[in-house]
Design brief:
heterodimer; A: about 300 residues; mainly alpha; B: about 350 residues; MetI-like fold; 15 helices
Chain lengths: ~300, ~350
C-alpha cells in the first residue's frame, strides 16, 4: 500500500545540509537558488531602508506612472510606488510563510510524535483527524476558513493556510518517532526509569526534528505561492496592502494600459518560488540517493 | 484487487464524515446573524420578521449539533440545501457550474499529458543536450509560476497586444447569446453545441477555452515532464536495459518499448495527483478568466455569505480530491506488478 507520495516523502538529516552545499558544486542551479533566497532575505530585512517611498503612501497626482528614476517600477492606480511595495511584499511573503510553517510544523510534530510514540487508540484518533485535513486541497480549506470568519487579514491568512499545512508533517513525524523510539537509546532511557513523557520530549523528539526542518524548507516556496493565490482571489490581506498577490489583483484592471502594475509583483513571486525550488532540488539530489545524478 | 479497493473505500467513510464535520464547523465558526444579510440579498427589506422567518427555515436558532444533524440528514438524501441568497436549490447551481469546470480541467489534463510526457521522454533520452536543458528550465519556471499571473500575462499578450483571441472573459462571447443561443442538453458546452449542430457557438466556446486551458495546464506540464524525465533516467540505468542493449536491440526498441513502459508507472501517480491539483488551480484560473465554473461559484458564495453554497463547494472539492487520490493509489497498485500480491 502506498502512502500519498509527495506528502509522506521521508527526508534525512539537517546535518547533511552542509554536505549538500559542498556537493552542490555539481548542481550549480541549486547555488543560484541559494543566492536568490539570500537576496530575498536581505531585501526583506532591509526593506524600510531600501524602499525609496512609504509602500502605503497614496499620491493621486502620480497615478499609473511608467517606470522612471523616481519610481523604478512605476506607480499603481493610487500613485503608490511599486518598487517600495514589492520590497515590502517580500517581507510580508517571507514572514507569513515562516509563521505558517512554524505553526504547522509545531502542530504536526506534536500530534505526529504523540501518535507514533503512544500508538493504539491515540495513534488511531490522531491519524484519522490528520486524514480528514489531508482530504482538503490547501487553497480550498483556506477559502472555507475565510468564508466562516468573513474577515480579510494577515492573521486569518496565516491560520487559514496553517490549518491544512500541519497534516503532512504529522505523518512524517509519526513515522520518524516510531523509527527512533525503537532504537536502543530510547529503550535504555525508558528502562533507566525515565517517564514516557520525558523520554518522548527529551530523548526522542530532538532526534526526529531534522526531517521536518528539511521538508519545511522545501515547502516554503509553495506556501508563499498559496498565500499569494489566496490574496489574489480576494481572501487574503485587505486591498491596498503591499502583498504580491493582492497587488496583482488590484492592478489587473489597469494592466492593458500599465503593464508594470502586474509585471513586477509577478516577477517577484516567480523568482522567490523559483529560488526555493532550485534550492530544494539541490537538497533532494543530495538526500535521495536514488535520484543521484538523475536530476 | 477488488478486496483491496473495497477496503480502501470503506476506510474512506470516516474521512468523508470528517470532511462534512470540518466544513460545517468552519462555516459556522463565528456566531453571527446572517439572517439579516440573507433577507437583504433576497430583495426583502431586512426586517426582523424576514430574518426570523429565515432563522426558522435554516434552523439557525438550533444548537450547532442539531443544525449539523439536519444538514447531514438532507445531504444523505442527496439534498445540498437551498441557497438563502439566490433561493435556488444548491444542487441546481452546481449542475450549472460544474460542467464548465470539468471541461476546463479535462482539456488542461489532456494538454498536460500530451505535452508533458513527450518532453520528459525526449529530455531523458537526449540527456544533457540543449533540448534537455531547455525543457528542464521551462519545467522549473512552470512549477514556480503563479497560475494567476501567467493567466493575466497570456491575456495581455494574446488579447491586448496580438489580438489573436476574443475577449478572454467568460465561457462564450456575449453576442452568441443572441445570434446562435446554445440549447442546453448536457450542460457541457462543447458537447451541447456539437449535438445541436451549433457550429458557430462551438467554435466560440473552443476559442474561449484555449487560454484558460493553457494557464491551468502549464504547471502540470512541468510536473509531468519532470517526473517522466527522472523516472525514465532511473529505469534506463537498470540492468535489464543494459541486457536488452547487449542483446542487440535497437535504441528505439530499448527506449520506447522496454524503458518507457516501466518508467510510466510512477508517472501515473503524478498524473493522478495532478488531477486533484487541477481543482485548486481551476479556482484561480476561473477567477482570472471570469470562467463560470465551480471555483467561481465558490468564490461568489463566500462573498455572499451563502453558507449552503460554500459547504457544497468545499465538500465537492474535497470529495473529488479524495477519490482522485484513491483512484491513483489503486491504479498504481494495479500497474506495478511488485505490489499486486501484497495489497
Amino acid at each position: 500500500m502506498i502512502r500519498n507520495a509527495p506528502d509522506a516523502r521521508p527526508v534525512r538529516g539537517v546535518g547533511q545540509l552542509r554536505q549538500a552545499w559542498r556537493r552542490s558544486k555539481r548542481n550549480p542551479l541549486s547555488r543560484v537558488g541559494a543566492l536568490i533566497i539570500a537576496g530575498l532575505v536581505l531585501v526583506s530585512l532591509f526593506a524600510p531602508v531600501l524602499a525609496p517611498h512609504d509602500p502605503r503612501f497614496v499620491n493621486l497626482l502620480d497615478q499609473l506612472r511608467p517606470p522612471s528614476s523616481a519610481h523604478p517600477f512605476g506607480t499603481d492606480s493610487a500613485g503608490m510606488d511599486i518598487f517600495s511595495r514589492v520590497l515590502h511584499g517580500g517581507r510580508l511573503a517571507l514572514a507569513s510563510g515562516l509563521i505558517i510553517l512554524l505553526l504547522s510544523t509545531l502542530t504536526g510534530s506534536l500530534l505526529g510524535s504523540l501518535a507514533g510514540y503512544f500508538g493504539g487508540r491515540t495513534d488511531e484518533t490522531i491519524m484519522r483527524i490528520t486524514d480528514v485535513f489531508l482530504a482538503f486541497p490547501g487553497l480550498i480549506l483556506a477559502m472555507a476558513v475565510v468564508a466562516g470568519v468573513q474577515q480579510r487579514s494577515l492573521v486569518v491568512l496565516v491560520v487559514a493556510i496553517a490549518l491544512r499545512w500541519w497534516a503532512p508533517y504529522a505523518r512524517i513525524m509519526r513515522a520518524q518517532t516510531m523509527a527512533v523510539s525503537a532504537l536502543e537509546f530510547a529503550q535504555a532511557a525508558l528502562a533507566s526509569g525515565a517517564s514516557p513523557r520525558r523520554v518522548l520530549f527529551r530523548h526522542i523528539l530532538p532526534n526526529t526534528i531534522s526531517p521536518i526542518v528539511v521538508q519545511a524548507t522545501l515547502d516554503l516556496g509553495y506556501v508563499i505561492l498559496t498565500a499569494a493565490s489566496l490574496s489574489f482571489i480576494g481572501f487574503g490581506v485587505p486591498p491596498g496592502e503591499p502583498e504580491w498577490g493582492r497587488m496583482i489583483a488590484d492592478g489587473r484592471q489597469h494592466m492593458r494600459t500599465a503593464w508594470w502594475v502586474i509585471t513586477f509583483p509577478g516577477v517577484a513571486i516567480l523568482l522567490t518560488v523559483l529560488g526555493f525550488n532550485l534550492l530544494g532540488d539541490g537538497i533532494r539530489d543530495v538526500l535521495d540517493p536514488r535520484m543521484q545524478g538523475a536530476a | 484487487m477488488i478486496r483491496f479497493s473495497l477496503r480502501r473505500l470503506i476506510l474512506l467513510v470516516p474521512v468523508l464524515v470528517g470532511i462534512t464535520l470540518v466544513t460545517f464547523t468552519l462555516a459556522r465558526v463565528v456566531p453571527k446573524n446572517v439572517a439579516y444579510v440573507w433577507a437583504g440579498a433576497q430583495g426583502f427589506r431586512a426586517t426582523p420578521e424576514a430574518a426570523a422567518q429565515l432563522t426558522r427555515q435554516y434552523h439557525l436558532d438550533a444548537p450547532l449539533p442539531v443544525q449539523y444533524f439536519h444538514y447531514m440528514a438532507d445531504l444523505l438524501r442527496g439534498d445540498l440545501g437551498t441557497s438563502p441568497v439566490t433561493t435556488r436549490p444548491v444542487i441546481n447551481e452546481i449542475k450549472q457550474f460544474l460542467p464548465h469546470t470539468v471541461e476546463l480541467a479535462v482539456s488542461a489534463m489532456l494538454l498536460s499529458v500530451l505535452l508533458g510526457l513527450p518532453i520528459g521522454v525526449i529530455s531523458a533520452v537526449r540527456r544533457n543536450t540543449l533540448v534537455d536543458h531547455l525543457s528542464r528550465l521551462t519545467a522549473l519556471l512552470g512549477v514556480s509560476m503563479p497560475v494567476f499571473w501567467l493567466g493575466l500575462l497570456l491575456q495581455l499578450v494574446f488579447y491586448s497586444w496580438l489580438g489573436l483571441v476574443p475577449d478572454p472573459g467568460g465561457r462564450l462571447s456575449n453576442r452568441i447569446r443572441y445570434t446562435s443561443p446554445v440549447q442546453s442538453v448536457t450542460g457541457f458546452l462543447l458537447v451541447d453545441t456539437v449535438v445541436t449542430g451549433n457550429w458557430i457557438a462551438f467554435q466560440d466556446a473552443l476559442v474561449h477555452l484555449i487560454l484558460p486551458a493553457i494557464t491551468l495546464a502549464l504547471p502540470q506540464v512541468a510536473m509531468i515532464s519532470r517526473m517522466t524525465r527522472s523516472s525514465m533516467l532511473e529505469v534506463l540505468g537498470q540492468d535489464y536495459i543494459r541486457t536488452s542493449r547487449a542483446k542487440g536491440l535497437s535504441e528505439r526498441v530499448v527506449n520506447y518499448r522496454h524503458a518507457l513502459r516501466n518508467a510510466l508507472i510512477p508517472v501515473t501517480t503524478v498524473v493522478g495527483l495532478s488531477l486533484a491539483w487541477l481543482l485548486t488551480g481551476s479556482v484561480v484560473t476561473e477567477v482570472v478568466f471570469y470562467w463560470p465554473g465551480l471555483g467561481r461559484y465558490g468564490v461568489e458564495a463566500i462573498l455572499a455569505f451563502d453558507f449552503p453554497g460554500v459547504m457544497a463547494f468545499t465538500i465537492i472539492a474535497a470529495c473529488v480530491f479524495v477519490f482522485a487520490n484513491l483512484a491513483t493509489d489503486i491504479l498504481y497498485t494495479r500497474l506495478d506488478p511488485r505490489l499486486r500480491e501484497g495489497g
